[in-house]
Every structure is written in C-alpha cells, then in structure tokens.
Amino acid sequence: METMIEERYELCRERISEIAQNAEVGEDVKAYFTCAAKLAGQILNTYELVGQGFFDGAPIAELRRANRALYEELFSQNYERCYANPAYACKMLGADRGKMLSFLYAELRCMIPCAFERRLTDLVIRMELFVEVYNMFSYAMQEGEPAPSDEALRDTMYWFVSDYSETTAQWRVAIQVDPAHDFAVRIVMDSDLNDVRYLYKYGEFVTPETEALAQYLASLSDERIQLIADTYTQGYRIGFEKAGKPLAKKETVDIIYVLGFERIVRAAIGNFAQMGLKPVIYRASDSIFHRKGMGKSGYCGADANKQYRFDHKDDIGLFLDKKLVNRKLEVLQLAYEQVKEQAKGYAGPAVIEVFGEKPFAPQTKPEACVLRPEQQKLSAEYRGASAEIVNRFIIGEERSFTVIAFPLPDIGECFEEIFDETVKLNTLDYKTYERVQALMIDALNTAEYVRIKGMNGNRTDLRVALYPVKNPDKEAVFENCVADVNIPVGEIFTSPVLAGTNGTLHVSHVFLNELEYHGLELMFENGMISDYTCTNFACEEENKKYVKENVLFNYDTLPMGEFAIGTNTTAYMTAKKYNISHLFPILIAEKTGPHFAVGDTCYSREEDVKLYNEDGKEIVAKDNEVSLLRHSDPSKAYFACHTDITIPYDELGEITACYADKTECTIIKNGRFVLAGTQELNKAFEEIE
After folding, report:
1. How far is CA 634 from CA 316, 351, 356, 528, in A?
2. How many domains in the chain?
3. Domain boundary residue among 359, 377, 398?
4. In this structure, are 528 and 612 located in the same domain?
C-alpha cells in the first residue's frame, strides 16, 4: 500500500510539473491551471524540504522566506488577484465555474499542513482531483469539444468529497483521541523554545507578532510560567471535581492553543501527566471535510487573511444534499467505532484562547458560496446529528473542559502590561466572588422572573422567566461560577424557563466567533428567537442573512439557553483602562455584564449530573422545554451551538428580580451593583472614574 501511494505521488508530481510549464487547455482557463499547478508544485517542494530536515535547522531568514512564500498570495494586497478569492475567480472564469475552481484552489492550499505532517495520502488525493479536473479541460481542447459543463465539474468534485469522507473522518477522529498522533506534541516537548525557529516546523502562518509572543514567554521566569500553567490545569481538574466526575478514568486531554504559547503548553503537559493524562494536540483544519464556518477547532497560527476564510466558509454549499449528509454521518459513526476505547478515555478540551487581533469586519461577496434554504436545514440537521454521534462515544456527562485567555502582541504597545493584568484577572481570589455571588443567588432564588433593561442607547427590554424552586433552602436556580472551567472568575448563570421569556436583546457593538456585529438585535417569544437583525449592512436582507448564518447557525430559531450576570468588574476596569473591551474574547467579556446565550444550555448533555454550589444547595435549573425533549425526541433537544452575547455595564439600566407577590429586588441599577452586600464590586468602577 505504501509503495502504491508513493507511485501515485510521483505520477501526480510529474504531471503537475508539466501543467505548470505548459498547460494545454483553452486560453480562458490556462492562467488558472498554471497558477494552481505552481501552487501545488510549491507545496510539493515544501514536502520534500520537510523530509530533508530543512525546517529543523535552516537560518531564521530562510525559514521566514519559505513561510511567507506559502501564504503571501492571501495577503490583502495580493488577494484581489488570487484564484483563492471567489470574486476574482468568478470574474476570470465565470460565475459557476469560478466558484468551483476557487474551491479547488482553496482545497489545494489545504495540502500545506499535509506537507509538514508528511501525510502523503492527503496530498495525493487533492493532487489527483486537480489533475482529473485539468484533464477534463485538456481532453476537451485536444478533441475540439466544448469545455466540461459546470454540472460535470460539480459531479467530479462532489464524488471527491463523498468518496474521501471516510478516510478523512477516520483520520480526524483518530487524531482527536489517540496520543500516538504526536506531531505537535513533539514540537512542543522536543524543541528549544528559546529559539523561535521552532515556530516554522508547524507549517502554519507565522507573523512577527507570533515570534514576539514566543520571545516574550521565553523571557518569563520558570516560576511565572508555572503559575500560569497551574491556573490553567487546576481549573481543568477542579471542573471534574466540582461535577463529581472521575478524572482517574480518563487518559487523554485535548490541548488547544495558538502558536507562541508553547512554553505554557509544555508546563501544562507536565501538570496533566501528574493527573494521568496524555496530550492530544491537533491542527485546526480549513478543508472541506472538516471546516465549521469561521470556527476553529485545534491549534493554529496567524491568519494570513480572515476574509479568505470567510469567503470559503460555505463551500460545502456546492455539494450539500441529503445523500452527502447521510454519507458524512455514516462515516463519522464508523470512525468513532474504530477508536471507541480511546474515545472513552478522552477527558475533554483545555483551551487557551487569545485576544488583541485587529477586529475583522467581513465583506459579503455575491460570488462566495452560500447555502440555499434547503441546505441550511440540512446543515443544521447534520450539526445536531453529528453531535449526537460524538456524544455516544465521548459521553458528555463524563467529560469536562477549561478555557483561559491571554492577549497577543497584536494588541499594541501595552501588550506586556495587558498580559500581566490578564494573569492577575485569571488568578483573582475566588472566595470574594463566591461570597458576593451567593448573595445575588439568594435574592434571585425565589424570583418569578428577572427584568433586564438597557440604557445609553441600548434598547434591551427583557423578561426572563426563572425555574420555580420547591425548596429554597436546599435548591438553587443559579450556579455560583468561580475559577474552574471558565477562567477568570465572576458570574452566576441559569437555564431560563422558555415560556414567559419575552422581549428584545440589543447590543450596540459586539464580536462573536471572530465576527463583528453592529446593532445586534434578537427578539424572543416564549424563549425562542422570533426575529433578528443587525446594522452591519445597508441592506436589511444582508443583515438578517449575516445573523442567521453566524449566530443562528442556519437554524430557523434557537432558544435562550442561558441567562447570566457577570460580576468581574476588575476585568471591566482593565478593558476601560486600555480601551480593549472590543477585543476581549467572550470568555472574559461575559464576566463584564449580563449575558444571554442562544442555543444549548450550559448543561447540554449533562443535565442529569448532580451539581451543588459551595453552600450545599443543589443546582436544579439545568433544563428547558427544548432540552427536555431528550427524553422523547433527542434529535430536537440539542443544537450543538451556544453563543454568549453580553451587555456591558455602561449600557445596562437595570437587573431586577420580580417575585410572585409583586415585590421586587434590584440587583444592578444604572450599571452599578446596588444589592446589599454586593457594592464592593463597584470599587473597580471607582478606579476608572
């Protein structure tokens, strides 16, 4: 088998070299095939260089040149004349043909990680697809026949996606649960992390800021690095303890990070080893086989151009039909069957998020692929069904996670100061927050509903219905969240009752999943989104499309899965001090005001795990009317998404608990905590003022 794939590789390599030198096709597509063949040839040369050890010892200047050469066509100044840009491809090749050949070009770019990881089969299947498509055009020209139809092109690419779904699913699932796939682990553990040349071994895009991050962390003392790693890994361990889940039964931890954080990751791997866990570290993928919109799952480098990722996020729309959905679900099931014992040992992700990059406001291009209405439903169907398959092998009630965030040098001159401030945020004394938040929980525990209103232009006007407790002395509606799975400290949260949850959620400016929103507005009727819009675009149709694709994930509606009150006013003060509130990730931003999640509840697939606050009260509000369908129709109970939307304190008019006897208790008024015993949270505001 190995000899056969090597023979296929040599045949493709030779053919692609010929195409790059003399593409025998019509003039209308010659430039495309020449350019694409040169790209493929460049990546194949990189594959050879990796095998020769070039990236292990070359001078830094050569490594930078080699890295830049792989990504520079995506730079904004070059992207307008690149076939990876569907707008340019459609302009040069025609609308339908341009979309398909731009997809093919983007899939060729997915060979870069294959070259560095020496995944020969994944290189070959993409090269063979390119050669097959080229041959269709070359044969037509030589025979004097019409160029292949758009439908013929689509069919060829469709069967590529369908046929190789099985092998790509097997590989993707295996690297997520099997520590034997240790490409990235070896870089982290075996490299000299004081020498930034190690960054170029991954094959990810490396910027000066990436190098600066690695150099900064290299300058920190071992004690400082260990403190950061301890906070990160102890949050993971405490998450298991608090939920009463046996960590001792687990074997692997899924570490997700951005290039540059390797010193922290190395220290974390040592900590996890003491817990009996081996690391699984895998790359985020932009391939058609694994892409999930703009989201990333796995480690990654810098983005050469986020618009490129946005342009191709819905390429599956070229092919998506019921047959392909069934095929993808079938091979996913088979892939997990093959590693089911290892999947049992998977403990969950430990994520290092980042913030500070320049905000990305995407350009919506008519030439980019979009999902038709029927495909949107299929996409939502696949999202839910695939999550159900994963949960059968990686049982939600038995796993946990942790997330921590740090700034990138992209944030500006104050990077080192902000990094230090973030470390302080991540290590705040949780006892103070636990005590103050307990007072808020007591005030809310017997409320019928909560009224939330905005101010200073914020049009939020919501009534959120709460779960009715039967025994307030032993039951709690809100969870008292301190620093465990979600670092830093600072929130209480619940699953609202959908019936009676009505009104408008409005945020003037927010970033969600790397995308910017202006004037985001969601309307709720009985806890379900009834309407939505934003003001990003002049055209209301574009606004609705943008929100549906990227907030509702193509579902027609989603429930309000969470209502929470963030209490970390220190984080809010830090944001104001450095003017970085618009750069904070959701992880920190959600602690700086009330937030509302649309999609699944916080307890998705873990509803039956008994949880208790520190005062011994059992948390009883873990379900809603949708998640309860898991008992009768599991396919309708979950959405495999959970997006938090935060109202900042300076847009928050009030949060008031309203009781059945018509009495009220205000928690926050005009952006300040007014409940007795919680006013100490306002000290951070005084520092700002």
Report:
1. 26, 28, 39, 18
2. 3
3. 398
4. yes
Domain limit, last residue, from 360, 381, 398:
398
Start-end of H helices in 298-395: 306-311, 322-338, 340-344, 373-393
Q: For 229-275, how does the pLDDT look when each residue is reduced to its tens digit (9 = 90+)? A: 999 999 999 989 888 899 999 999 999 999 999 999 999 999 999 99
Same domain for 212 and 234? yes
Closest CA to 364 of 87, 112, 615: 87
Q: Would you say residue 416 lies in a domain?
A: no
Domain that holds residue 387: 176-398
| Residue 459 pLDDT > 90 | yes
Cα–Cα distance measured from residue 230 to residue 637, given in angstroms and rounded to the nearest whole number: 36
> What does the alpha-carbon distance between residue 388 and residue 639 come to, in Å, rounded to a whole number?
10
Query: Tell me: the pLDDT tens digits for 557-577?
Result: 999 999 999 999 999 989 989
Is 423 within a domain? no
Q: Are 232 and 257 in contact (CB under 8 A)?
A: no
Q: Distance (Å, rounded) from C-alpha 635 to C-alpha 131? A: 41
Domain annotation covers residue 637:
yes
Nearest-angstrom CA–CA distance, 291 and 16: 26
At residue 375, φ and ψ (nearest 5 deg) are: -75, -35
Most confident of 394-398, 578-582, 596-600: 596-600
Q: Is residue 167 scored above 60 in pLDDT?
A: yes
Rg (CA), the chain: 26
- 153 and 181 fall within a common domain: no
